[in-house]
Amino acid sequence: MFKAFFFDMDGVLYDSMPNHEYTWTHSFAEYGITFPAELAYINEGRTGRGTINLVMNKEYNRDATEEEIDAIYGLKTKLMKECPKASLMPGMQELIKQLRSEGIMTYVVTGSKQPSLIDKLSADFGFTKEYVVSGADVKKG
After folding, report:
1. List of residues 6+ apart from 43 with CB closer than 8 A
2. DSSP state of 10
3. 91 φψ region: left (φ > 0), alpha (ψ -120 to 50), beta (else)
4. Which residues, including other chains, have CB under 8 Å from residue 120's CB and lie 6 or more apart?
5. What secondary structure does DSSP assign to 59-115, as a single string?
6. 120 near 109, Cβ under 8 Å?
7. What distance in Å separates the CA atoms of residue 97 and residue 116, rounded to the nearest whole number?
8. pTM for this structure?
9. Which H or E element spans position 2?
10. Cross-strand pairs, 133
11. First to last CA, the chain
């Protein structure tokens, strides 16, 4: 009946949303912007650029400059590397294995652009680059 399943990464394959909440709130705070924790969850799946522009439009009625995007997202990336490793969501490895055994294609879609993403997804779930659509692959996330 199904030919393919598309899985988000954060909060679906990995229990990583607490890390995203922490890194977004702290990255924006560094630049004097209050970013309520719930916004990290509401904007999950949006690219980093999209989230930053959303916040800058709300705060300053303008898009972020390239320098602001690089600075805020750079700090977020640095903080993510310092966070505890996100655990796998229970049952996801087994579900993906079961789907594949039934001939159903499995893909990951994520707003992340992190280069280490493919290695992580490959090691934990057997996803290779051709089965991942990331923030680096889209123009408008």
Report:
1. 50, 51, 54
2. B
3. left
4. none
5. HHSSPPPHHHHHHHHHHHHHHHHHSPPPPBPTTHHHHHHHHHHTT-EEEEE-S---T
6. no
7. 22
8. 0.81
9. none
10. 109
11. 29
pLDDT (tens place) for every residue of the chain, 141 residues total: 899 999 999 899 999 999 999 999 999 999 999 999 999 999 987 888 999 999 999 999 999 999 999 999 999 999 999 999 999 999 999 999 999 999 999 999 987 776 677 888 999 999 999 999 987 787 776
Closest among 1, 9, 34 to 86, alpha carbons compared = 9
β-sheet with 132-133: strand ranges across: 4-8, 105-109, 132-133
Cα(33)–Cα(17) distance, integer angstroms? 20
